[in-house]
Design a protein that fits this description.
The protein is mainly α and 514 residues long. It folds into four domains: 125 residues, no CATH class; 171 residues, no CATH class; 92 residues, Response regulator (Rossmann fold, 3-Layer(aba) Sandwich), CATH 3.40.50; 38 residues, no CATH class. Helix 14 links the parallel strand 1 and strand 2. About 4% of the residues have low confidence.
């Protein structure tokens, strides 16, 4: 039951982060404009500062809503979501970041259901008329609903949450949120916490004060830095060897997931980031510190870029304090358990098959959001294969959106069940850490030393066939049934890879089919 609850929370957080994370670049642009041109900024300019409010009030909510609607209902869902969200925006006096997260998926789901209802029922020649007017009429209805119902309700809810945050800060108990944030991060709920909860609250504070402490509650890189530094100095084995590289990737690259396995291997270490984060939050609260926009990814570079004028010393001190306290707490805990087993047990997995590199046409690394740790793992693995002369496409994606043509999926063990549901036909390789894993070493060895296909001799005067189908193109291995629905492009790519795997076409032929 506990695992089911965590999975449901993680799935909800995934839905929120899928709306926000593709638009992080827009948040960064708004944050830079705010930090530079507002009266308290680095280059105060009254004319350029006029962009701040429209970006905050209209562009960012509409982008999030469009993305949410598109995730549920495709392109038409995105258009519906944008129309509906305008009603929510106009119906409220505050930036509507909670309302757009509600209206976006709702509008996308509505048009998706209506399209299915009207499927095969539209008279020939009236398709464009019905499709356009269905969005127009339903969009108008959703906009009115958002104006009169959702907008006022979300305004009240946002006011309540803002008052609660203000009360917590006034009472000086904001550091206690670390008791919930840090354990949630280790369970890979960091995107849900940061983008689903803290970012909307932080934007409200930025509108009033020009900065917010909320953006640093989860994104402070100091907490993970302390744990990694202690592991580097006092741990043994793989953890000690991988810690230096993890420090660079975490602190400068902003991929916080890189230090989660270090704590999962020694759960008692969770005390270190909790106390480190609480100390940093207390310092920021004392000096009214904060940054102007979400720091994503949570690297020191992004944090400094989003820091307004006059706040750099405070923010740097908060990062240093978080790292120092986290290090001082983690060091004795690691030294105390130095002689104990620290590997994370993996779930039971099938015995690995005898893979020939010609049988694997696509490898996918998957993580929760598909943008951080999986991108790191895919890049490193691709380089390792390339050095050995193995040229197999290696991509990265969210664990719930694994492409149908993936032959082999690599993900962290905590996402194993979700990966199995997303790609039931792919071989699954579960690991603890994208940075260093014996399973990845074994996989590289299997691919590099796979048996090369036996060439069939042909007459010198006869052109060799592209492939030898044997039983014909319609052999059982080339017939796939029960696949999840996917786009036309994905279906064509999958068909091309089947042809390539069977030897009917030359490698790379699928690209010319699209």
């Amino acid at each position: 039951m506990k695992n089911k609850s965590v999975t449901e929370i993680r799935s909800f957080g995934k839905a929120l982060s899928r709306m926000v994370m593709p638009n992080i670049g827009a948040f960064i642009a708004w944050g830079l404009i705010t930090a530079l041109f507002i009266p308290a900024g680095w280059i105060p300019d009254e004319r350029l500062a006029r962009m701040v409010d429209p970006l905050l009030r209209y562009l960012l909510p509409l982008l999030i809503a469009f993305t949410g609607g598109k995730n549920v209902g495709g392109g038409r869902g995105g258009i519906m979501a944008a129309i509906a969200t305008m009603g929510v925006i106009v119906g409220s006096d505050i930036p509507m970041f909670l309302g757009d997260m509600i209206m976006g998926p709702f509008a996308g789901l509505l048009i998706k259901k209506v399209d299915r209802l009207l499927e095969n029922k539209i008279p020939a020649g009236f398709e464009m008329l019905v499709n356009n007017f269905s969005i127009g009429i339903l969009g108008m209805g959703c906009a009115l609903f958002g104006f009169f119902a959702i907008g006022p309700v979300v305004t009240l809810l946002t006011g309540f949450l803002s008052s609660a945050v203000a009360l917590v800060m006034d009472k000086g108990i904001l550091p206690l949120v670390s008791l919930f944030i840090e354990p949630g991060k280790i369970l890979f709920l960091n995107n849900a916490i940061n983008h689903g909860i803290l970012t909307p609250l932080g934007i409200e504070q930025v509108k009033e004060n020009g900065l917010s402490i909320m953006f640093l509650l989860e994104a402070n890189p100091g907490t993970g830095l302390g744990v990694l530094a202690a592991s580097w100095l006092f741990a043994k084995g793989t953890m000690k060897q991988t810690a230096p590289g993890a420090i660079i990737i975490h602190f400068f690259g902003g991929i916080h997931e890189i230090y989660f396995p270090y704590i999962l291997a020694r759960p008692v270490l969770i005390a270190a980031p909790i106390l480190g984060s609480a100390s940093a939050i207390a310092l920021l609260s004392l000096f009214d510190g904060g940054i102007a926009a979400p720091a994503s990814p949570g690297s020191i570079i992004a944090v400094m870029a989003m820091t307004p004028r006059g706040q750099h010393l405070t923010v740097l001190l908060a990062v240093f304090v978080a790292a120092l306290v986290s290090f001082l707490v983690a060091a004795p805990l690691i030294r105390k358990q130095r002689g104990k087993e620290t590997t994370i047990p993996l779930p039971d997995t099938p015995e690995p098959s005898n893979i020939n590199k010609n049988d694997v046409s696509r490898i996918v690394f998957a993580c929760d959001a598909g943008m951080g740790s999986s991108a790191l793992g895919a890049t490193r693995f691709r380089k390792r294969l390339s050095k050995l002369g193995v040229h197999i496409p290696v991509d990265h994606c969210p664990v719930d959106e694994i492409p149908a043509d993936a032959d082999l999926v690599v993900c962290q063990a905590i996402f194993g069940q979700r990966a199995a549901r997303s790609a039931p036909g792919a071989e699954l390789v579960l690991i603890n850490d994208f940075l260093e894993s014996p399973a990845l070493d074994e996989l590289v060895d299997r691919l590099a030393h796979a048996t090369a296909p036996v060439e069939t001799p042909v007459d010198d005067n006869t052109q060799a066939p592209i492939g030898i189908p044997g039983e014909g193109i319609l052999c059982p291995d080339n017939i796939l049934t029960g696949l999840a629905g996917h786009s036309r492009e994905e279906a064509i790519a999958l068909a091309g890879r089947i042809l390539e795997k069977g030897g009917y076409v030359l490698p790379g032929y699928d690209r010319f089919m699209l």
